[in-house]
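Journal club side-thread
Mid-discussion, someone asked how the predicted structure for our own chain would compare to the paper's figures. Pasting it here so we can look after the session.
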Amino acid sequence: MQLGLSTAPGATLLQVSQSDVFSQIQNDALLSSSLWVNIALAGLSTLLFVYLARGVSTPRAKLIWAATLMIPLISLSSYTALVSGLTVGLIEMPAGHPLGGQEVLSQWGRYLTWALSTPMILLALGLLADVDRGSLFTVIVADIAMCVTGLAAALITSSYLLRWVFYLISCAFFAVVLYALLTEWADAATAAGAGEIFDTLRALTVVLWLGYPIVWALGVEGLALVQSVGVTSWAYSGLDVVAKYVFAYLLLRWVADNEGTVAAAGESTGGASPAAD
């Protein structure tokens, strides 16, 4: 997306008003719809999840519910910030990038969303699987680092090479998360009596989360094989819908129906139970 806005020689972050960016978003039906749809779904999901948790009474189940409820609430706030232009800006792509020298709309606020919402997903999964606190802490920190370095990859305009360096660093942190989900967390979930639902949620998470770096690489931020900001935004939004709202619904429905299993896991092990020392 290229705008006829002048910038000083060598400038990278373009000085445009928030209202200009807001108008740019609203005038692009594909882009704006990708944001408004998520705002609506996040709001509806929040109401649904509150309803699903009306009968939850044990501390461990309540903690899983609280972590899961944060997912749509964070998304609701974040997508509202995106559609308003608050967390969107124009950057000039560096030399060597397929769009080098062109002004591109960057939805950098998505990375802030992921840095806050994906730890809640992992916290809920870790509590469900009753993993030990050391592993839970390590995976959540790696996840946040993945999002922050992904943000760096998206915003660097001084060097096309360094964009990819940070992209690879982000992928390395992602590998830590994947390793835990595919190995030790799966074993812990089986021991906690939640193996079947964990396998479903793990498959959903792993497959969909792999989609994000693929979209980055193919979209305007990476190789720019897809140069439409609206198409890229819909790709991210579509992944968010399933990875967050569908994920959360499946988890909360299972917890509501199997609260005894959830409570027993926390009582019988010294893992991530809220009462563990």
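Post-session note: The two ends are 53 Å apart (CA to CA).
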